[in-house]
Specification:
- It contains 4 helices and 6 strands, in the order βαααβββαββ.
- It has 171 residues and is an alpha+beta fold.
- The chain folds into 2 domains: 18-95, no CATH class; 99-169, OB fold (Dihydrolipoamide Acetyltransferase, E2P) (Beta Barrel), CATH 2.40.50.
- α1 (20-41) packs across α3 (56-95) and α2 (43-51) runs antiparallel to α3.
- It is elongated.
- The chain starts with 14 loop residues before the first strand and ends with a strand.
- The chain crosses the membrane at residues 22-41, 62-89.
- Keywords: Membrane, Transmembrane, Transmembrane helix.
Length: 171
């Protein structure tokens, strides 16, 4: 079986913000429903496979293996569908709201592999990935000398869709 993870950036917008409902309704609930669905669908196979082993360690291995397989398949099917639906609804709700400009304090520049800029938004740490060109510019810079100007539209559940962002020197 071959799995292909597709980059859905044309569907998924860059968002900032936090709300526990996202983790519950978009990640955990669909994944658990998927595990139950696939478990019920494959129950005869799973019971036969479990009963075919006599040793306890092999039974534990079979349970662990098929549980991990169930989590992976559930997330890749049910979880991805839930994520796409959430992104679509969030985008449609954000289009109804005005564009805002938010100034955020830069907390740091990570300049190693996969460089990024970390900043605070509504008292939570957020991260934007940056290009290698911007990474070279940020090397040895003091984050206290910069602010991040972010143009956003408010969506649902305290998530904001990022339209544009730029780094501004404040000193």
């Amino acid at each position: 079986m071959i799995f292909c993870i597709v980059n859905l950036t044309f569907i998924e917008n860059k968002t900032i913000g936090h709300d526990p409902r996202y983790q519950i309704y978009v990640f955990w609930l669909p994944t658990i429903i998927g595990i139950l669905f696939f478990g019920i669908y494959r129950r005869k196979f799973l019971i036969r496979k479990y009963q075919s082993f006599k040793e306890v360690y092999l039974k534990i291995y079979v349970i662990g293996f098929y549980l991990l397989q169930g989590i992976l398949v559930s997330y890749l099917s049910f979880g991805q569908i839930a994520g796409i639906v959430w992104n679509y609804i969030n985008k449609k709700e954000a289009e109804k709201n005005p564009t805002e400009i938010v100034i955020c304090n830069v907390k740091g520049f990570y300049t190693k592999k996969n460089p990024d800029i970390s900043f605070t938004f509504k008292d939570k740490i957020e991260v934007f990935s940056i290009t290698s060109e911007m990474n070279r510019e940020n090397y040895n810079r003091n984050p206290k000398d910069f602010a991040l100007e972010v143009i956003v539209q408010e969506g649902i559940w305290n998530y904001y869709i990022v339209k544009h962002w730029s780094l501004k020197r404040i000193n």
